[in-house]
Amino acid sequence: MKFLKYISLTAAVITIGTATMQPVQADKVSKFYEGKTVRFYIGASPGGGYDLYMRTLVQHMGPKLPGKPNAIVVNMPGSGGVKASNYVYNVAPKDGTTIITPFWTHPLFQLIRPRGIKFDMSKMRWIGNMAALNSMVVAMGNVAKTLEDAKKKEIIVAASGKGSETYIFPKFLNTAIGTKFKIVTGYRGTAKMTNAMEAGEAQARGGSWQSWNVIRPNWIGTNKISPLVQAGLKPHPDPAVKGVPMLVDVVSKNYKPIAQLLSIPVAMARIVGTPPGIPVARLKALRKVFDETMKDPSFLSDAKKRKMDLDYLSGSRVEANIAKLMKTPKNILKRTADVLGYNKKKSRK
């Protein structure tokens, strides 16, 4: 009988101890964040699609952070977003006060274009994903209506860097189907690329379809622009782009594996994470707050008003998807790098 009482008492102590662990951990996390500033980095300029998602997230997630720290957005454009990802991975604090939404191309590009990349997306700790955004090549309406038009004449395409979706899809199409896109890099963000199109400096650009809703919503559904092709796992639901062909459907069988590889990461178009090394309790707290934000009626209402497509994934699911991407067969990675011109050696003078 005494033995049974001892077992019951021990179980009760363990139960109480377990029940009080989480509040204690939560208190420690809150105490850490008190008076601090949490910086949310994006590798793009203000005014584009990445900026919209990050600022909307910070607006609603910021007040929910434990300890009520300051929450600010830091724009760090450069090299197709690589500058920001390199900084966050190697320089920024790894204590839970650094958060980033990298370009969705980065998990793939560390495999096929490692030059200049000083991060490993498979070692990042992911908080979650906000959206799956189809990437499109869009031309001025008076320049081209279809991809067939883009095969007949040179079209100047504004792009950021060679690590950006604004570069990879036009470049891939040039090789795969014979389009004549002349890609001009150096534009910092889709807003500046769009300005260049409006000024006649460029005639087309890549980027998410969502970015058009942010930058020139009045152009959508008019003859001002013509979406030529879209990349993603399924067609975009917007009636304005109904019938725009999918990337995997416009290329020959020989190029389909590459088209599929380039389309897969689009499903994680707005991933949110921290550099490796963050304490587990703080990562759990950030994931909890992120998950709550994604379900917050106020957040959902603002996202709808701002025409933001949402497609939530948990942090653990993002990590699993990236781990799977890292196992892509090397022959497909090499072919992709070759097609995009990443394996070309610079000639010595």
Describe, in short, the structure shown.
44% of the residues lie in helices and 14% in strands. It has helices at residues 2-33, 49-61, 82-90, 106-112, 147-152, 165-176, 190-199, 210-215, 247-250, 256-263, 280-295, 297-305, 315-325, 330-339; strands at residues 37-42, 70-75, 98-101, 125-129, 135-140, 155-158, 181-184, 204-205, 225-231, 271-274, 313-314.
Question: Can you put this structure into words, describing what you see?
Answer:
- With 349 residues, the protein is α/β, with parallel strands linked by helices.
- The protein has two domains: 24-131 and 270-335, 3-Layer(aba) Sandwich (D-Maltodextrin-Binding Protein, domain 2), CATH 3.40.190.150; 135-265, Periplasmic binding protein-like II (D-Maltodextrin-Binding Protein, domain 2).
- The protein has helices at residues 2-33, 49-61, 82-90, 106-112, 147-152, 165-176, 190-199, 210-215, 247-250, 256-263, 280-295, 297-305, 315-325, 330-339; strands at residues 37-42, 70-75, 98-101, 125-129, 135-140, 155-158, 181-184, 204-205, 225-231, 271-274, 313-314.
- The strands form three sheets. A five-stranded mixed beta sheet has the order 7-6-8-5-9.
- The longest helix has 32 residues, at 2-33.
- The radius of gyration is 23 Å and the shape is globular.
- Residues 1-21 have low confidence and may be disordered.
CATH level-four homologous superfamily name of the largest domain: Bordetella uptake gene, domain 1
Highest-level CATH class of the largest domain: Alpha Beta
What is the number of E strands? Answer: 11
Helix content: 40-55%
- Round the mean pLDDT to the nearest integer and report it: 90
End-to-end separation in angstroms reads: 90 Å
Helix/strand order: HEHEHEHEEHEHEHEHEHHEHHEHH
Total domain modules: 2
Shape: globular
Number of helices: 14
